[in-house]
Structures are given as structure tokens and as C-alpha cells.
Amino acid sequence: MRRLLPPLVGLLFLLTWELVVRLRDVPVFVLPPPSAVATALWNDAPLLLQSSWITLIITVQAFLLALITGVGLAVLFKQSRALEAALYPYAVILQVTPIVAIAPLVVIWVGYERVNLALLILAWIVAFFPVLSNSTAGLSAVDPNLRDLFRLYGASRWQVLWRLALPSALPYILAGARISGGLALIGAVVAEFVAGSGTATGLAWRVIEAGNRLNMPRLFAALTLLSVLGILIFAVLTGIQRRLLRHWHPGGAG
Amino acid sequence: MTYVPGSPVAPPAPAIHVTGAAIGFGGRLLFSGLNMVAPGGRTTCLLGPSGVGKSSLLRLIAGLLSGSGRISADDGQPLTGRLAWMGQQDLLLPWATILDNVILGSKLRGEKVGLAHRDRAMALLDAVGLMDRATCRPDALSGGMRQRAALARTLFEDRPVVLMDEPFSALDAITRLDMQDLAARLLTGRTVIMVTHDPLEALRLGHEIRVLSGSPPHLSAPLTPDGETPRPTDQPGLLVQQGKLLHHLRQGGVA
């Protein structure tokens, strides 16, 4: 019963929406009824799916890059406090600078002809920090008693990292990854909005284009697909997290 | 009697000499000028009120804590690599199976883990009654079982010297007694230094009992209860001695 509640609410919402639009004769360029959005989804499917694919690819690339660089940098930081002290502030600066403000710069530097690369860089900047900060926290949270045990057993630095620190940090890293996955999508979309040119043809461009042409049903269809992408990424990452943490720390899968 | 794996012709476990040990903690001297001998192949129990520095002393002997003083073995060999450690928590890796946890030391030493290792680990798990749990992960085990697994891992190391820091303090009373029996049986012949806050535990397991108390802390003369370990709980005199020890501990704590 509980599992049925969310779809039920959604269905009710869509029905109300459809009814209100029809009964009050709301013009389609203000608010298209769900039926029109569904029709647009069906008719524009080839175009929209191609754009979804582009956005998905950029998002996944940015996410993986963020994962590798985030965990990698956190590991480096743990090996050298001086390095951490030297670089961490810049990671924070990168994180707190609004992506919208630097996006035009990055797009100009990389060039409009390689706008997908610019989008990747921007999405990476957004997605990178949660992985870095969570991994850093995770690597620091190793049980000091276990550290002692490894020391007594004569474990090398590498063994401590590989057999103790990284496995201990895994729940943290995965929690960071889950945040980062959503942010990568947001980063990719925001960057494309700012790039604002037809050379990038992801979902965000479809939203801009449809808005400019007052093709509201297609705009809503593109938005729907963006939500679906976001939910998909979240679901996949949650699934991976559950799977990997099933035997981990008691109650650590949350 | 369960077969206890290990090398039967192992050289006798050395006595451990602690000379002039001093540990500072947060700018305060915890204790200084501490001397102690833990006789070879015997179990020495260290009792004392909490915060007196008994765990610190153990960590100093293990080389986990920097302090001053000389820690040496009476056979002249260095202690490094001859120690096994068992702590208050089981310290099992939650992501590894019980079997993998038991052979952790071998893996860390880069030994090729073969059938011989596995057989020995399984025999030890059998000795602690966990044979059928070898492929479980620690979170599937009760606290007592995990501590038994930790004991198996400590024994797997097969070191002549075993340091134990309140190894059974997190267990309920009955499980604790069972573990004490098991440990006494399986640790026979090794030099054991066990920190505990439980006088009964010290009296059951210790060939020698030393109390660390007072301010500044000093070690009492060794108390040597009669009879073989593990001494039964209903042994006459045990309760009397427990009472005396408790009294001593409380006085030490107040002073």
C-alpha cells in the first residue's frame, strides 16, 4: 500500500492538471495539459532521446571523472598533510564559485567548436567536491585501534591504504558519489544553459529552443526527460551503494 | 582436549622486562620509573582503577606509544614481530569474512596464503567453536562469537608474546567466564600480559597479578594465587582474594 502512494499522488496531480487546463481554457503556450506533453514526448521522441543521450553521456563522464579525481586527491591528501594544506582551499574556492559565473569563461576558453568538452569540465567542477570532501572525511574516520593493529602486524603504508583506509571509507565515498551523481546532471544542464548555443544539443538546449519557439509541450517533455534522467542516476547509485554495503558496517547502508 | 595448532617445538616464550618506564599524556606525566617483569610462558594480569595508565603501559610494551624506558625480552632478541595483540573491541574487519580476518596477519606480511594457512585457521576456528561461521562476516555474529574470532586471529599469529587489553570486558558475565577458560587453555605456554579491570578475571587467569594504583601510580608486588589456570569460580579462597583485591583497588583509586 505504501509503495502505491507516490504513483497515486502523481496520477491525481496529472488528472487535476489536465482538468484545470481544459475547464479553464488555459492557452497551450502558458500551460500545456499533460496529454499534450505526452503527445510531444511521443512525436519528438527521436530528437529528445538523442538529446537525452548527449546529456547522459556528459553527466556520466563528469561523474566518473569527479569520482576518480575526488578519491584520488583525497588519498593524496592523506599521504601528505602539506599537500592537503596547500590545495584544499583551492578545492573549496572551486566549489563555492557559482558555476553560472565561470561557465561563459570556460566555454570561451575551450571554444564553441568543442562545447561538449566545456560542458564536461563544468559538470565535473560541480560534481567533484562532494566526492573529495566525503572521501577525505572517510579516510580520516578509520578506527585508530584498527590502525594500531595494522601497525603491529607490520602493514606497509600501501597495505594500510588498500586494506584498511579505503574499505573503511567506502560508505563515505559512496554517500559522496550519490550526491555527486545528481550534481553532475545539474552541472551539465546549467553549463549548457549558459553556453546557450546550438552547438551543444543536450536536453537543456531543447528546453531553451522550445522556450524560444513557445513550443511548450516539447519544453515540458524535455523537462520530464531531465527528471527521469535524474531519478535514474539516483536509483542506480543507490542500488550500487546498497549492494556494496550490504555486508559492511551494520546500518551503514543509510 | 582440543588439538591446538602451533609449533610444538617452539622455543620457550621469553620473559619481558620493563625498566624505568615513563609515559606522558597531554603534558602530564602518567607514571615514571616503573619496573616490571612478566615471567616467560606465564600469564601476568595487570589490574588497576581506570585512567591509571595500565592500557598505556601495555601500548608502550607493544611499541604503539612513545615513552621512555626499556622494554626487553630476557632471551636478548628484539620483541618486534614476536607480539600478538588482542584489544577490548574485536577489531575484526567488517568487510572480510571470519576466515579472512583470522589470516589477516599472513596477508599483511605478504605471505602466499595457501591451504596450510587455511587449514590452520580452520583448526583454530574449530578450537574456538566457530568452524561453521568461517564464511560469515562479523556483523552476522554475536559479541561473544566475534571476540572468539578475535582470539582465533590472535592465536593464528602464533607469537610467543600475547598482549591483551581488557579483551573480554565487553562481554556478559557468563560469556566472559567461557572466554576466560578458552583463552587460558589456548594461550598455555605463551607469555601473556593481560590488562583487566576485573579482579575475578585476574584471579582466574593470572599466574601473577600486579596492581597499578596510587598517585603517582606504582606497581604492587606480584600476587601469585594457588592452583592451575583457569581457576574455577568456586575455588575456596578465590572470593576472599577477590574481596582483598577490590579493597586494594578502591583504596588505590581514592588515594
From TrEMBL, chain A:
ABC transmembrane type-1 domain residues: 52-238
Transmembrane regions listed in the UniProt entry: 47-75, 87-111, 117-139, 160-179, 185-207, 219-240
Keyword set, alphabetical order: Cell membrane, Membrane, Transmembrane, Transmembrane helix, Transport
Highest rank taxon of the organism: Bacteria
Membrane-protein topology: Multi-pass membrane protein
Pfam families: BPD_transp_1
UniProt entry tagged with the keyword Cell cycle: no
A cellular component term, taken from the record's GO annotations: plasma membrane
GO biological process, one term: transmembrane transport
Main localisation: membrane
Subcellular location: Cell membrane
Family of the protein in this entry: Belongs to the binding-protein-dependent transport system permease family.
PANTHER family, per the entry: ABC TRANSPORTER PERMEASE PROTEIN, ALKANE SULFONATE ABC TRANSPORTER-RELATED, MEMBRANE SUBUNIT
Protein name in UniProt: ABC transporter permease
Organism: Niveispirillum lacus
TrEMBL record, chain B:
InterPro entries (alphabetical): AAA+_ATPase (IPR003593), ABC_transporter-like_ATP-bd (IPR003439), ABC_transporter-like_CS (IPR017871), ABC_transporter_ATP-bind (IPR050166), P-loop_NTPase (IPR027417)
Keyword tags: ATP-binding, Nucleotide-binding, Transport
ABC transporter domain location: 16-239
One matching Pfam family: ABC_tran
Signal peptide coordinates: none
Domain of life the protein comes from: Bacteria
PROSITE patterns: ABC_TRANSPORTER_1 (PS00211), ABC_TRANSPORTER_2 (PS50893)
GO terms assigned for molecular function: ATP binding; ATP hydrolysis activity
Transmembrane in keyword set: no
Region annotation (Disordered) ranges: 214-237
Similarity comment text for this entry: Belongs to the ABC transporter superfamily.
Name of protein: ABC transporter domain-containing protein
